[in-house]
Each structure stands twice: as C-alpha cells, then as structure tokens.
Design goal:
- This protein is an alpha+beta fold and 103 residues long.
- The chain has a domain at 1-6 and 42-92.
- It has one helix spanning 77-95, and strands spanning 2-3, 46-52, 58-64, 70-74.
- The chain is rod-shaped.
- The N and C termini lie far apart (64 Å).
- The model is unreliable at 7-13 (pLDDT under 50).
Length: 103
C-alpha cells in the first residue's frame, strides 16, 4: 500500500458571501498571485508496509519512499522486545520442574 503526496497546491480565490439579491460591486476581483513551484513546499511520499509478527500480531511500518528511512512503526520495537522477553520468561517458568518442598 502506498500513499502518494499531493504534487501541487491550487490557489482558489475566496468565494463571495453575497447572495444574488444583494447588489454586486462593479470593481473587478484582484488577480490571484502565482507562486513559483520552487517556493512551494513539496510533500513527502510515504510507503506503508504491513507484516505479521509472532502470534499473528500485525506490525505496520511507515517508510519514506525516497530515502527508505523508517518514520514510524506500530507497535513500537520497544513494545515488541518487552512482549518477547515476557513470553520467554513465562515459557521458561512453565518448563522448569516443580519442586515439592514438604518436609
């Protein structure tokens, strides 16, 4: 899945709030100023990747299409690391033999 940026912005003059019954001004509307393309800010292109982690957990990664840099990951890597550590410690506790300490 990809999100394409808006390549250009369009200047639209403000709409008149006058109704048809109101008298119209005889003055022409001021001209709309053209903004050079070099001055306009360029939108960044993003790419969204979805993959399955362990336990059918969906991991979304939002990447900059031009540089390949990771912008955001949902859930964050710290969350995935913590969940993995808890899962491993839980598995280690269930695999250890129980010792009966009755005397």
């Amino acid at each position: 899945m990809s999100i394409d940026p808006i390549q250009s912005a369009i200047s639209v003059p403000a709409l008149s709030t006058q109704t048809d019954a109101a008298p119209r001004s005889s003055k022409p509307a001021p001209p709309v100023k053209e903004v050079p393309a070099a001055v306009m800010p360029q939108a960044r292109a993003f790419e969204v990747n979805a993959s399955y982690g362990s336990g059918l957990l969906v991991i979304y990664r939002i990447l900059d299409k031009d540089t390949g840099q990771l912008i955001e990951q949902i859930p964050p890597q710290q969350f995935l690391d913590s969940a993995r550590a808890l899962q491993e410690s839980s598995a280690a506790e269930t695999n250890t033999p129980k010792v009966d300490l009755k005397l």
